[in-house]
Specification:
- The chain is mainly alpha-helical.
- It folds into two domains: 98 residues, Orthogonal Bundle (Recoverin, domain 1), CATH 1.10.238.10; 54 residues, Recoverin, domain 1 (Orthogonal Bundle).
- It is built from eight helices and four strands; from the N terminus they run ααβααβαβααβα.
- The strands form two sheets. The chain has a two-stranded antiparallel ribbon.
- It is elongated.
Length: 171
């Protein structure tokens, strides 16, 4: 996106008005960009028929019943369109759910890392990591395991710290 376009979006948004949504300025800008890309006639509204496609873009596939319930909720007056405010309120819910899911996954990963880091040193040895990877994927060859270890142990320390472990599990 061009800098001029980003500044235009900044000018169009009153962040204070959206503070209650508990999303970042960057997330709000992203939502505005998505909304604007669907507001082809530049009327400041988009058809509720686009909700499914937009949520799909945000990584949320919904059943027909879930989508219908959301449309009923958003389009209270039944006019078939929604404003950016309505759209932001809807999309923010999905962004917040996604953040909560990510935080839960990170907590679980941190707990798993602590289980392997029995001595609390802040790292695990690559030999232990090799055993973990073999357990997760028994069909890996020695060559594949060695290659994975090289990619994971980015600083070639012979150990895997929390950041390397997290990158391996998430990335």
């Amino acid at each position: 996106m061009s800098k001029a376009k980003a500044e235009k979006i900044d000018d169009d948004l009153d962040y204070e008005a959206f503070k209650k949504l508990d999303i970042s300025k960057d997330q709000l800008k992203m939502l505005k960009q998505i909304f604007d890309s669907f507001d082809l006639e530049k009327k400041g509204e988009i058809s509720v028929d686009m909700i499914g496609q937009i949520l799909d873009m945000l990584g949320h596939q919904l059943s027909a019943d879930e989508l219908a319930a959301i449309i009923r909720e958003i389009d209270e007056d039944g006019n078939g369109v929604m404003s950016f405010d309505e759209f932001a309120n809807l999309a923010a819910r999905f962004l917040i759910e996604e953040e909560e899911d990510t935080e839960a996954i990170l907590r679980e990963l941190k707990d798993a890392f602590r289980l392997y880091d029995k001595e609390g040193l802040g790292y695990i040895g690559v030999d232990l990591l090799r055993d973990i990877l073999k357990e997760l994927e028994p069909a890996l060859s020695v060559t594949e395991l060695n290659e994975m270890i090289r990619e994971i142990d980015t600083d070639n320390s012979g150990t895997v710290d929390w950041d390397e472990f997290k990158a391996m599990m998430i990335g």
